[in-house]
Amino acid sequence: MQIINFRQLANRSALLLGLGLAVGACDKAVNVQPTNDISSNAGYSTKEDAAAGLLGCYDALQDVDYDGVGFPSTVDLLAREIREVGTYNTTFGLINQNQTAPDNVQVGNTWNAIYSAINRTNYLLQQSDKITDPAFPKLDTQGQARALRAYSYMNLLALWGGSPQGYGYTGGLGVPLRLTPTTSIGSETAPVPRSTEAEVAAAIRADLDFAVANLTDGDGTVALVTKSAALALRARFELRMRNYANALAFAKQVSATGGFATAAATGITAPDAIWQLVFSNTDQNLFAFYWYPAPGGRNEFDPGTGFAAAHPTGDRRLAVNVAPSGTTLKYTHTATRDDPFNAVRYAEVVLTLAEAAAQTGDLATATTQLDLIRTRAGLAPTTATTAPDLVNDILLQRRLELAYEGNYWFDLRRTNNVQSILGTVPPAVPNAWNQTYRNLFPIPLREVNITNGVIAQNPQY
């Protein structure tokens, strides 16, 4: 696997809101363009600029408030797959109780981190169009960037959008849709109201379709988005939107990962990875730091109460998901903090094939794909024989297979099971999961306030 240290290479493409605005009437001796930064006024002019810009787009996803720990952990805290046991009581702690308020700092930080990632991709897409060097792989570069943008909008829509009953319903709420970069204060920074869920969905599909058409699987480098990764994201999105036939069609096009069926059932092995965010000891995340105690960590998180009991007898994943120490073996690198984060796994594709097949009446395919996951986990073949029973088993396998990767809450939402599952378990705050408006996360308070309500809050917050 090729390892790329994104953060060390991304300085040239890092975009801040006011980039390029701090240049004053300087003496010529000091008014020198830095070699490791690119002003938004100068833009990209070479294929090397664009290559650095693309690395900056990946680097934005590694932010600690995004996929460096904040986003997937927030999602799993909401779903009670993770239990907050540390001192972040007013941020992660309230999220874990489903008492998230619009002024929760983590809500604002994650929202900003995702939009910062989108802004970097927007800038790269704008500037890369200007590069005429025939050696510049423009379509591949833009295909990766558009897949990354789609991924971020999928995450925004999944957490803040849709309807209380799920996704893809008439009148579903969207998020502000920005498809051009913000590089200077003025018209570019004018408030943008929320688009509808359908409008955001159309943009996501357009980006992923472009990526699928212009990417290849190349040398199989899992640190970069490939055609298979884009196809898997498209299948994920269609499953989430309950378009099961389309989810099945896209999942079928994903290239099979060699050695998957016989690989260890850990969810962290290379044969399972389609796209990972790769970290290093100089480009770190906080997963292990939050999971493990000192020395090396602060033990903010433990497995959710009752999560161990959800594993069937003999399930090999139990020792990974709930380690004897009360932590997890998915994230263990407390010294270097370089555990990879799985953005797309082949196990998810297999489970998408199974669920979409069951939902469209192909029970034989559903059973075959489901048993691939069950067998790898050390379980006997499924005993389910009807579509509803197969789907229930598939959803359980998704929960156990994709643990701590930020998926279960969205499975509960898309199947309209938040209240029926989480509302029946005694929570720390009575009835917290029976308030259906909380199925949508609150828009950060400052976004509503500084736009004078142009960005509307989700109902009842």
Mind explaining what this structure looks like?
The chain has about 450 residues and is mainly alpha-helical. The chain has helices spanning about 5-10, 45-60, 70-80, 90-95, 105-130, 140-160, 195-215, 225-240, 245-250, 285-290, 320, 345-360, 365-375, 385-400, 410-415, 420, 445-450; strands at about 80-85, 175, 195, 275, 300-305, 340-345. It has one domain (about 5-15, about 45-450): Serine Threonine Protein Phosphatase 5, Tetratricopeptide repeat (Alpha Horseshoe), CATH 1.25.40.390. The protein has a two-stranded antiparallel ribbon. The protein has a two-stranded antiparallel ribbon with strand order 2-3. Strands 4-6 form a two-stranded antiparallel ribbon. It is found in: Cell outer membrane.
Strand order of the largest sheet: 1-5
Gyration radius over CA: 22 Å
List unreliable stretches of 5+ residues. Answer: 1-37
Q: Which band does the percent of strand residues land in?
A: under 5%
- Report the mean per-residue pLDDT as an integer: 90
